[in-house]
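Sample 1 of the test manifest.
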Amino acid sequence: MAEQKMVTFIIERQDGPDAKPYTEEFDVPYRPALNVVAALMEIQKNPVTRDGKRVAPVVWECNCLEKVCGACMMVINGQAKQACCALVEDLEQPIHLAPARTFPVIRDLLIDRTVMFESLKKIQGWINVDGSWKVHEAPRQNPNTAATAYEISHCMTCGCCMEACPNVGPQSDFIGPAPVVQAYLFNINPLGEYDKPKRLEALMQKGGITSCGNSQNCVRACPKNIKLTTYLAQLNRDVNIQAIKNIFNN
Amino acid sequence: MYNVTFYLRRLHSIAGLVCLGGFLLEHILTNARVLISPASFNSAVDLLASIPWYIMLPLEIGLVATPFLFHTIYGIYIAWQAKNNPQHYPYINNIQFFLQRLTAWFLVVFLAWHVFYLRILVKGGGTHISFQLLQSYFENPVYWVLYLLGMWAAIFHFCNGITTFCMTWGIAKGPRIQQVINAGAMGLCAFLCLVSLAFMAVYLM
């Protein structure tokens, strides 16, 4: 029988939110179409490092395993990716895994993405339908903007764009490409449009769209191929118009 | 409340492109006169010097020095908030993002030296600027190289600024127009770098 091929993983670990990071190396038996999540499951079954030490299993997060939920985002060989669809055969070996340090690390590869939800609240990432008024039937969607809305609605708040963006991180208050572009999704909705000025106002605040530095990493990092830079430019246009309105309407 | 950040950012953008960019182009135009002849450069400098101080000084303070200081100070605050990562994401726009900040840091130091020495100490001290003065100044090869690098850094920072200005103001929205503008701006950058190399080379001859 041919010798079993092994894949080496070098994993940046951390025992707690304030603990010091350290690295450990693991060997995982190779099999065709092995992906990073499957490899992490192998390590979980048998958490023994390359030098034979038995350690606590590596902690990470995953759910859907088909690039829909966004939970398994981590830094793979330096770049933010979904671990579930990162195939070992496409990656340079040894494979380096690290948590996305743009977010607070909870343990090992597990991160806390609460900040993205908070940002979605800031930009009013919802549509107001409940109130004392009569709702009637839902308004018709423009099929052209509906296609764009469908595209942006693929966003799974995985945080790849946030990790890739040089302007997002503990050093800055930028809310990041994903939450900013979500404002556009609700702005083009026939009902959401009513609150467009509110969302644009939110984007003009500190840490809003003005913190974008046009590095355009987000559009390359997005696993859902959302044209983030295009919608950021559109929102830049919209906030500029809103600013002119603010100056001359008040 | 009043979206102060928003207006500061947009002011930073306008000040950079219009005031600083305009002043850079004026600098290149005047300096390029040495390519015609040193005498032509001297007459261009004399023409600028013939503007009475009570017109020139307010212009210098209002349209150059103030926007410069604002752009520099607010720019340092912006550059501080970036964690540059071209080693992990070696895309062209990300490298430009990094270079924009790298040239900015270099320009802060270079311009402080350049303005303090030539504008305040030499010209402010009453010395007349001429080709001959600069030629003797550039006999030190270190100065010559630093000035050429300063020119190139300023030219790149300005040209890359044209591209990002078009994105920030929502002028260029889609990827195609953004690429076209970027290519045009980088073409302009290469051309202006060659022009500055040419007029700097005259001082070596």
